[in-house]
């Protein structure tokens, strides 16, 4: 922008229950409305047609839609206006009415003719980052993304946003193993942690990136091997939180999918410790997907079941109805079931599943050593023995397996 146009004056508009008019119903209008919704403004969209996503906002009342072209006087009572049609003449008329009525207007097709510029906006909780790029939107977006990424991974410390003094616990689902698959909220919790109690299935690379003053406690539970008792883990969470520390319990997958997360929540609640749960991407869905296997597919399966295989069929403590699973036509996903796979496969066949049903076994999902073994229910025991698959592994039973077969 030329220097004589003046520099932009950044300001935050508080638009709660105030009328905002968006003229236009295309992709640009949709993006503007999406941002305005967070301000809880009263949004009116004026356009003969709108995108499906905008139309979906009309029924619940989030947006009012006037199904016609813009007319003079449509801006009456508005606090803010967006002109986002594909007709420069209409946008110019909207901007002229807004200027006459002293309403700030963002004109999507001509920044020089706008009385306000929309910054590149990023959010972290109640923190809002707005960046103006001197008339260059891509420049603003690049800086915005860098700032938000820094706030997320902790390289930019928002110390004022740290929790108030006093201990707390956050249960974070770390996803299937790739550190890039943890949620944004999970990264934020880690960035503020003083103590991290981590499983061996949690993204290990994230532990290496923690500041040296963060205490990391190994709470691994190795299959049929060394493990920290769940009661000890519960005690550690409570102990460190009571000492006033911010504790993150970092787990693989999702805390509430065979992760014993609810036991930890109950232990903290019983001790009066504030506790938050951050869901994670469960390996039951993510690992098959990363191997090219969808757990559902239109016209092929209408259900999928996730089952723990840590106890074989017939074990007195098993809670799984294996005969019912054998009768299912859909997808069965087995977690923690490498050693028990032969017995589970036999039970599924015994109770009705065809011996030639496709099976995919995916080990070390989402990591550099991920590999997939393809076989059938009848051939599963031999395939596992021949390939030497060891935990962690997820195996999938069903016709969906054939969809991801490169052969």
Automatic annotation (TrEMBL):
Transmembrane segments: none annotated. Pfam families: NAD_binding_7, TP_methylase. It catalyses: precorrin-2 + NAD(+) = sirohydrochlorin + NADH + 2 H(+). InterPro entries: 4pyrrol_Mease, 4pyrrol_Methylase_sf, 4pyrrole_Mease_sub1, 4pyrrole_Mease_sub2, CobA/CysG_C, NAD(P)-bd_dom_sf, Siro_Cobalamin_biosynth, Sirohaem_synth. The active site is at residues 199, 221. GO terms for biological process: cobalamin biosynthetic process; methylation; siroheme biosynthetic process. GO terms for molecular function: NAD binding; precorrin-2 dehydrogenase activity; sirohydrochlorin ferrochelatase activity; uroporphyrin-III C-methyltransferase activity. Residues 169-380 form the Tetrapyrrole methylase domain. Keywords: Cobalamin biosynthesis, Lyase, Methyltransferase, Multifunctional enzyme, NAD, Oxidoreductase, Porphyrin biosynthesis, S-adenosyl-L-methionine, Transferase. Pathway: Porphyrin-containing compound metabolism; siroheme biosynthesis; sirohydrochlorin from precorrin-2: step 1/1. This is Uroporphyrin-III C-methyltransferase/precorrin-2 dehydrogenase/sirohydrochlorin ferrochelatase. The lineage of its organism: Bacteria, Bacillati, Actinomycetota, Actinomycetes, Geodermatophilales.
């Amino acid at each position: 922008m030329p220097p004589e146009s003046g520099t932009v004056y950044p300001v935050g508009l508080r638009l709660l229950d105030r009328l905002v008019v968006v003229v236009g119903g295309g992709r640009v209008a949709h993006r503007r409305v999406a941002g305005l919704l967070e301000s809880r403004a009263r949004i009116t969209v004026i356009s003969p047609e709108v995108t499906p996503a905008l139309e979906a906002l009309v029924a619940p009342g989030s947006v009012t839609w006037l199904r016609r072209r813009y007319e003079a006087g449509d801006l009456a009572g508005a606090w803010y206006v967006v002109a986002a049609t594909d007709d420069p003449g209409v946008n110019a008329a909207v901007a002229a009415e807004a200027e006459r009525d002293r309403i700030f207007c963002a004109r999507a097709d001509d920044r020089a003719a706008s009385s306000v510029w929309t910054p590149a906006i990023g959010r972290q909780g109640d923190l809002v980052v707005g960046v103006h790029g001197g008339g260059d939107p891509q420049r603003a977006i690049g800086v915005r993304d860098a700032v938000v990424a820094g706030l997320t991974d902790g390289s930019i410390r928002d110390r004022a946003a740290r929790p108030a003094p006093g201990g707390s616990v956050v249960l974070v689902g770390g996803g299937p193993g790739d550190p890039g698959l943890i949620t944004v909220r999970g990264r934020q919790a880690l960035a503020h942690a003083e103590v991290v109690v981590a499983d061996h299935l949690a993204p290990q690379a994230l532990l290496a990136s923690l500041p040296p003053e963060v205490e990391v406690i190994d709470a691994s539970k190795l299959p049929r091997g060394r493990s920290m008792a769940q009661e000890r883990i519960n005690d550690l969470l409570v102990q460190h939180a009571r000492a006033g520390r911010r504790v993150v319990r970092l787990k693989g997958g999702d805390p509430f999918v065979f992760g014993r997360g609810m036991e930890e929540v109950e232990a903290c609640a019983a001790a009066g410790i504030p506790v938050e749960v951050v869901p994670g991407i469960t390996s039951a869905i993510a690992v098959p997907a990363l191997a090219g296997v969808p757990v559902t597919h239109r016209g092929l399966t209408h259900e999928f079941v996730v089952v723990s295989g840590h106890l074989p069929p017939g074990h007195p403590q098993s809670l799984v109805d294996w005969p019912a699973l054998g009768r299912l036509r859909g997808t069965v996903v087995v977690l923690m079931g490498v050693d028990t796979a032969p017995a589970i496969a036999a039970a599924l066949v015994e109770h009705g599943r065809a011996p030639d049903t496709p099976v995919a076994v995916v080990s070390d999902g989402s990591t550099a050593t991920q590999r997939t073994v393809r076989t059938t229910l009848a051939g599963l025991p031999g395939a596992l023995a021949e390939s030497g698959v060891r935990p962690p592994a997820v195996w999938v039973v069903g016709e969906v397996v054939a969809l991801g077969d490169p052969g």
